[in-house]
Write a structure and sequence with these properties.
Layout (H helix, E strand, L loop, with lengths): L7 H17 L13 H10 L1 E2 L7 H14 L13 E3 L18 H19 L14 H8 L9 H11 L20 H8 L3 E7 L4 H12 L4 E8 H6 L7 E2 L2 E2 L6 E20 L4 E10 L18 E5 L10 E9 L7 E8 L6 E9 L2 E5 L4 E2 L14 E4 L15 E7 L7 E10 L8 E4 L5 E3 L4 E6 L12 H9 L19 H13 L24 H9 L19 H12 L6 H4 L19 H8 L22 H11 L5
Parallel strand pairs: 1-3, 6-9
Antiparallel strand pairs: 2-7, 3-10, 4-7, 4-10, 5-6, 7-8, 8-9, 11-15, 11-17, 12-13, 12-14, 12-16, 16-20, 17-18, 17-19
Helix pairs in contact: 4-5, 4-6, 10-16, 11-12, 11-13, 13-15, 13-16
This protein binds calcium ion (CA) (2 copies).
């Protein structure tokens, strides 16, 4: 790879020249493969895997047999792993030759239009060759996201890496206009792009015979790859005319002054393709076939002579001492992929290039997993972003979602990099999930939006388990733990109502469920009621009876239970202490020696619930710590948030 961008300075120096040439030429052909930014280089190097050998697949071996059959019955079946010639552009998955015009979007044409169209068409059985705009990937989706807001090209490997994170939408939803290189995709395009996400990023170094063979095998396997080439004037102006490094439509060495970097797509090869290298005067064999994006009237034809737009590059050209064609880059695909969980984020900012947007699962303060950045140094720092068009963030890889689950505890995060001059805004986030994979998505909004995000800070759009909670609510973990254990559930409107005060009948329900191991395991209760004010028909009858049977509740001295009475923190201590004692009730607690002096000044030794409060406050249990003022406040009523904390700690429940 050393030397790949050895001509960077030259490339930059030549850039003005290229633009002026392009603008003045009769045929204005865009180019646009530029070196990576430092961020792009780090990103790619952290993910790209080098491949030395490609094993033949079933298609390659079938092609070998076909080739042998064509050659005649007298030819023995060769022990080859690939045929002598392959042209994947003949397959129905390959789109018609495209034309980038004078926009420098070749990278998006190679990675998006050719590579990903073909890859997805092969996966999903699409007839991309018809050019149906719904079946081909759009360069206009990718290019504005990776060009830094200017029409000066993009980094090929990074474009390929982006396919695995954001995918690429169809041309139908992201029409291509050669004058527009800054408009970001529509919401519909962002969403559609997700189904065509790839995975992985691979490089075959093509500066050796083994690398070239691996590349040929990849093509024989029915795959494509993209490649960067230093374009010289003979290619830019003269190809396919012979002379100056071109013979029999084969480019075998650079000719004329350097013009610019250019991205092309490897579609095939032919071991028998001949050309005469004027430097040695000898006939050589073997060339790769590449698709260009300079329209169908340019270049060579493919094997079917169905279309022009192609270019042959000699095998040996890859091995030139002074490299001008570089490595083969490709990916794997996600088979028949459809996202199960994604978010739509409505974001506003005046400098979109400072934003970093990603998804995650778990609490933002302690995420279980986060996605790759959907936006990062994207599209130029000088251009704005409006929340009127939302951006899709695929959460499928990070969000655990079983078939009957309601989606919760997922988020998108927006960071505004330091250096920005204005804060960002998360105006809205909608989460969509398709747990049963029927293609119909449920929808839920993030809580607590809009959120402004200061420069250098990160903001979140979080989907809580209950719509009235935020991820930083003090009892969030415990409420969730109690919910997962089946001890408490929310209201029909999706709220939890954490500040709602609980009553004595409700507390019996929570305790019974916690002890029994779920609602279904709480028995119906006896035929005769223990408390006259909790008769067999009462809604919480079986729970109160369950708690009474275990001596967790004893009722008042008049024999009543007073089910509708609000539960205070003194009573809560009694419920909890008796429930976690072994056996339940007061037997075990009788031997308990509370500390002296009392832990809380407002729960003295003669307070009626003294030993219970001390029992649950004991460091070994640490179920309560009291308030910041050092008091326990036994007279305060308990709300549903506090209850969840008591129960989760008492029963060792964790999210
Ligand atoms: Ca796919
Ligand atoms: Ca569904």
């Amino acid at each position: 790879m050393r030397g790949r961008y050895g001509t960077t300075l030259l490339a930059l120096a030549c850039w003005t020249l290229v633009v002026s040439l392009a603008a003045g030429a009769a045929q204005r052909r865009g180019l646009g493969a530029r070196p990576p930014t430092s961020e792009e280089q780090a990103y790619v190097e952290a993910r790209r895997v080098d491949v030395q050998v490609v094993a033949p697949n079933a298609l390659a071996l079938a092609r070998v047999r076909e080739e042998a059959a064509r050659a005649g019955a007298e030819t023995a079946l060769p022990a080859a792993s690939r045929p002598a010639a392959v042209d994947n552009s003949m397959l129905s998955w390959f789109p018609p030759i495209g034309d980038q015009g004078y926009q420098n979007s070749c990278v998006a044409w190679a990675a998006g239009y050719y590579y990903n169209t073909y890859t997805q068409a092969a996966d999903e059985g699409l007839s991309a060759y018809t050019g149906d705009r719904a079946d081909v990937c759009s360069p206009a989706f990718l290019y504005p996201l990776i060009n830094d807001g200017v029409d000066e090209g993009a980094y090929l490997d990074y474009a390929m890496a982006r396919l695995s994170v954001i995918g690429c939408s169809s041309l139908a939803l992201a029409p291509y206009h050669e004058t527009d290189y800054t408009s970001w995709p529509s919401e519909a395009a962002w969403v559609e792009a997700l189904k065509w996400r790839t995975t992985g990023l691979y490089r075959i170094c093509t500066d050796s015979a083994t690398g070239l063979e691996a590349t040929r095998q990849l093509l024989a396997n029915g795959r494509l790859a993209v490649v960067l080439i230093d374009t010289y004037e003979s290619l830019y102006y003269d190809y396919p005319a012979a002379g100056n490094g071109i013979s029999n439509e084969v480019l075998y060495c650079p000719g004329g002054p350097y013009v610019s970097g250019h991205a092309l797509t490897l579609v095939g090869y032919d071991d028998a393709k001949t050309y005469v290298d004027l430097r040695d005067g000898l006939t050589h064999r073997g060339a790769f076939l590449l698709a260009n994006s300079w329209g169908g009237s340019w270049g060579a034809t493919n094997a079917a002579h169905r279309s022009r737009g192609f270019l042959w590059i000699a095998y040996d050209a890859f091995l030139e001492t002074r490299r001008f064609v570089y490595d083969a880059i490709y990916t794997d695909d996600r088979d028949h992929y459809r996202p199960r969980v994604y978010a739509l984020a409505g974001l506003s900012d005046t400098q979109r290039g400072y934003l970093e947007l990603r998804g995650g699962a778990g609490l933002p303060s302690d995420p279980a997993a986060t996605t790759d950045a959907v936006l990062s140094h994207s599209g130029g720092t000088g251009l704005p972003l409006s929340n009127s068009s939302r951006i899709a963030v695929d959460l499928t890889d990070v969000a655990a979602l079983s078939a009957d689950d309601r989606l919760a505890d997922v988020f998108v995060s927006l960071s505004v990099a330091s250096g920005a001059s204005a804060q960002g805004l998360i105006a809205s986030v909608e989460f969509r999930s398709d747990a049963d994979s029927d293609g119909i998505y449920d929808s839920a909004p993030a809580a607590g939006l809009p959120v402004t995000v200061a420069v250098g800070a990160t903001g979140y759009g979080f989907l809580p388990l209950y719509s009235d909670l935020t991820w930083d609510y003090w009892a969030y973990d415990e409420i969730e733990a109690c919910s997962e254990a089946g001890i408490v559930s929310g209201y029909a409107d999706g709220t939890y109502r954490p500040q709602q005060v609980i009553t004595r009948d409700q507390m019996a329900v929570y305790i019974a469920r916690a002890l029994a191991g779920g609602d279904k395991l709480v028995p119906p209760g006896p035929t005769t009621a223990t408390f006259p004010d909790v008769p067999p028909g009462y809604w919480a009858y079986r729970y109160v009876e369950y708690a009474a049977a275990r001596e967790i509740v004893k009722g008042y001295s008049d024999g009543s239970y007073r089910p509708g009475l609000r539960l205070d923190r003194g009573q809560m201590a009694v419920f909890i202490a008796r429930a976690i004692a072994d056996p339940t009730g007061d037997d075990d607690l009788a031997a308990y020696q509370p500390p002296a002096p009392p832990t809380f000044p407002d729960v003295p030794t003669d307070f009626w619930a003294y030993r219970y409060v001390e029992y649950i406050a004991a460091p070994v249990r640490a179920i309560t710590q009291g308030y910041a003022d050092g008091l326990y406040h036994p007279e305060y009523v308990c709300d549903r948030g506090q209850m969840a904390v008591y129960v989760a700690r008492a029963f060792g429940l964790h999210r």
